[in-house]
Amino acid sequence: MKSRSSRGDERDANSVVNGKSILNGEPIPKDGRQGPKNPYHFRFALDSIKAAWPICLGYLPLGFAFGVLAQKAGLDLLDIALMSILVYAGSSQFIAVAMLSSGAAPVSIILTTFVVNLRHLLMSSSLAVYLRGAGRRFLSVFAYGVTDESFSVNLVKFRAGGWHRYQALAVNQMSNFAWIGSTILGGYGGQFIPAGSFGIDYALIAMFLCLLTFQLRGRLYVLTAIISGAAAIGISLVVPGNGFVIMASLFGATAGFAFKRYAQRKRGSYA
Amino acid sequence: MLKTEYILLIVGMGLVTYIPRYLPLFFLTQRNLPRWFIEWLDMIPVAILSALVFSEIFLSGSPRHLDMLQIKSLVAIPTFLIALKTKSLGGTVISGMILFWLMEWIS
């Protein structure tokens, strides 16, 4: 008991450098746990619902589209539900279903999933700053719900201050239920919808496009996107298989990082 | 695909998805990553998403080949603009699907 509490203190002291977020150096509120502190408070729950509903609304068409495509690929309702519960990552689930229908080996599907979902590493890293002092059990449950969307919403809320980690967890889990429910619904509805109708094949591309625009936060990111996209096309025409996504991403990110460093150094010399 | 093979597949997918979500939460609440590594990681999402988008809209067939002017890439332009304007995931997905559906129906 005693050793556990002392470790908790140490964690609190080390998670933030000089009161600033490690990611972007922005000052973070001294106490990120203001607002209604009582989890049974009505406003406490209401704020979570308000933050989560746009995510849930966005997941409905996406989850439904995934369910329909999965049903067309020969998965039954239980298969779909299990995948949504165990994996819970929209884009990689779409890719997995596409790869399953083209007869890809399970190992290559798992590898692609790993590559596509590696981006959550960064998201969890940014969120970690605001979760200092949380127990190991909380973190292991919270990690499950870190998605592009819940991350974006929770980070904005944490930065604004007064966002309790349980409210963040509630956002994660409401989104999670919306995703699981809508994919099952799509799997059920799929049998009434002919393949390729309503432009459902475009759902994944549209989602990627939208998530991409969220990431274009400046000229440097646009440049990185163009380099990475061009590299993906170039490599995919030469190298067979699905490895080109990770190769192009690593190349593009490294090039973008190099440009950033170059710009910083140049600016520094003129300053 | 056998049922057990499918279960193994999704358990594997679940693990490789969960681990990158969990490790930073576990370690970064205790210590910090080097700054250059965080800055490099910051470039990863945009690079991955762009690689995925470009390969989805500009490639076709198998063996795959470059096809710059196809319905997928043409529809991407208004869809991209809608995403920029509305910043809404659900709205973008629905408009993209409708545009793609219309274009396929016309052609």
- Which structural class is indicated by helix and strand composition of chain A? mainly alpha
Rg of chain A is 21 Å
Report mean pLDDT of chain B, rounded to a whole number: 89
| Coarse shape of chain A | globular
The count of β-strands of chain A is 0
Q: Helix share of residues of chain A?
A: over 70%
Average pLDDT number of chain A: 82
The topology string of helices and strands of chain B comes to HHEEHH
Radius of gyration of chain B: 19 Å
The rounded distance between the terminal residues' Cα atoms of chain B is 36 Å
Describe the protein.
The complex is a heterodimer of chains A (271) and B (107). Chain A is mainly α. Helices cover 72% and strands 0% of the residues of chain A. Chain A folds into 2 domains: 36-204, no CATH class; 216-271, no CATH class. Residues 1-34 of chain A have low confidence and may be disordered. By secondary structure, chain B is mostly helical. Chain B has one domain (32-106). Helix content of chain B is 79%, strand content 4%. Chain B contains 4 helices and 2 strands, in the order H-H-E-E-H-H. Chain B has helices at residues 3-28, 35-58, 71-86, 89-106, and strands at 59-60, 65-66. Chains A and B meet through helix 1, helix 2, helix 3, helix 4 and helix 5 of A and helix 1, helix 2, strand 2, helix 3 and helix 4 of B.
Describe the protein's topology.
The complex is a heterodimer of chains A (271) and B (107).
Chain A: H1 2-14, H2 42-72, H3 77-86, H4 90-101, H5 106-117, H6 120-128, H7 136-144, H8 148-160, H9 165-189, H10 203-215, H11 219-238, H12 244-270
Helix pairs in contact in A: 2-4, 2-9, 3-9, 4-5, 6-8, 8-9, 11-12
Chain B: H1 3-28, H2 35-58, E1 59-60, E2 65-66, H3 71-86, H4 89-106
Antiparallel strand pairs in B: 1-2
